[in-house]
Write a structure and sequence with these properties.
Blueprint (H helix, E strand, L loop, with lengths): L1 E5 L9 E7 H7 L4 H9 L7 E11 L22 E7 L5 E3 L12 H11 L5 E3 L4 E6 L4 E2 L7 E11 L7 E3 L2
Antiparallel strand pairs: 1-7, 2-3, 2-10, 3-9, 4-7, 4-9, 5-6, 5-8
Helix pairs in contact: 1-2
Length: 174
């Protein structure tokens, strides 16, 4: 995990879930986020087929999950070469490890990976993503969402450089 910079953003947005949006389509549909999205894109390396954005804006209440799987996990394929930039505003932010371990072997299927990570990383020192900071990581950096402890609006954006995940422009209310 590398913290690039802090990018404060003050506007609010209605609850929404957007997954695998092409950058230009995202910036047109969610123009309030275009400046932030561009700052995120500036921190991704050149030379990838696809540059995508995910966004989730939702109201947190104690016990609600911040993402589909709140266990330790990898984004994308562990052996893939995806690069990510994450930005989270509000309570209940994503957690990373203080020190990123190197794994000699990782199970291939997602469920086995998550069980392996939960066991291997039990008791590890955890660091919460700073509020409104641009955080860079790749498909080999374990992290986790959390069960909400605090109430409030959470805004999550993740930019991705990938050669194998294709744009889908999925949109739904949360």
């Amino acid at each position: 995990m590398k913290i690039f910079e802090t990018f404060p953003w003050a506007a609010t947005h209605e609850p929404v879930f957007a997954k695998d949006w092409k950058f230009d389509s995202f910036c047109k549909r969610f123009s309030d986020f275009a400046g932030l999205a561009q700052r995120m894109r500036d921190h991704l390396p050149a030379g990838y087929k696809h540059y995508l954005l995910d966004m989730m804006v939702h109201d947190c209440k104690p016990g609600v999950k911040t993402c589909g799987d709140v266990r330790w996990h990898f984004d994308g394929d562990y052996d893939g070469d995806n690069k990510y930039v994450l930005w989270v505003k509000g309570p209940n932010r994503t957690e990373f490890l203080e020190e990123i371990p190197e794994f000699s072997e990782v199970p291939e299927d997602r469920e086995s990976q998550n069980r392996f990570l939960e066991k291997t990383l039990a008791g590890a020192v955890v660091r919460t993503a700073p509020d409104q900071a641009l955080i860079g990581y790749d498909s080999r950096v374990p992290h986790r969402g959390i069960l909400c402890k605090d109430t409030g609006r959470r805004v999550f954006l993740r930019a991705m450089a990938t050669n194998y995940i294709k744009p889908k422009n999925i949109l739904r209310e949360v």
